[in-house]
Write a structure and sequence with these properties.
Layout (H helix, E strand, L loop, with lengths): L1 E4 L2 E4 L29 H8 L4 H4 L13 H5 L7 H18 L14 H7 L4 H14 L3 H14 L3
């Protein structure tokens, strides 16, 4: 992390994972099937614009999460045992460790440089066409393109 103030620049080593949440609009009801949103499009646009595009472009995974109905909250949970989740995570970490044994200072898919992305994130012709379509239609940046490939590599099995 580099902090620049006036004529002074200081760099601190850092590595972190950010988990963040925000409402879809100022009142929180935009897109809710059970509550009516009274926010105007301008209010929603101003609210979402508080998070800058360049910052959003650096968040690897963004997911819309709908509100949960009461019956779902009270229903018995069909959850996976923590030990099973831990095992899956450790297996994924081991695959990454094996993948990057020849690389210096690279331990995770998120740390891949563009050259490594080309090497480790090959996609099928159908996937290539889908990615090209998404990049052109959605106007995605080069950073977004690479992030899609890194996240895909993380989700995919070897």
């Amino acid at each position: 992390m580099t902090i620049v103030r006036a004529a002074v620049s200081v760099t601190f080593p850092s590595r972190f994972m950010l988990a963040a949440a925000m409402n879809p609009c100022p009142r929180g009801y935009f897109g809710d099937p059970t509550r009516e949103c009274h926010c105007t499009p301008l209010m929603i646009q101003r609210y979402v614009a508080k998070i800058s595009g360049p910052l959003l472009d650096r968040i690897d995974i963004q997911i819309e999460v709908p509100s949960v109905k009461y019956k779902e909250l009270r229903a018995p949970a069909a959850s996976e045992d923590s030990a099973a989740v831990r095992t899956r995570v450790m297996e994924a970490r081991q695959r990454q460790h094996t993948r990057f044994t020849a690389e210096k200072n690279t331990y995770l898919n998120a740390q891949m440089a563009p050259k490594m992305i080309r090497e480790h994130c090959a996609i099928s012709p159908e996937g290539e066409k889908l990615l090209e379509n998404a990049v052109s239609r959605l106007g995605l940046s080069a950073r977004s393109h690479d992030r899609i490939l890194k996240v895909s590599r993380t989700i995919a099995r070897p």
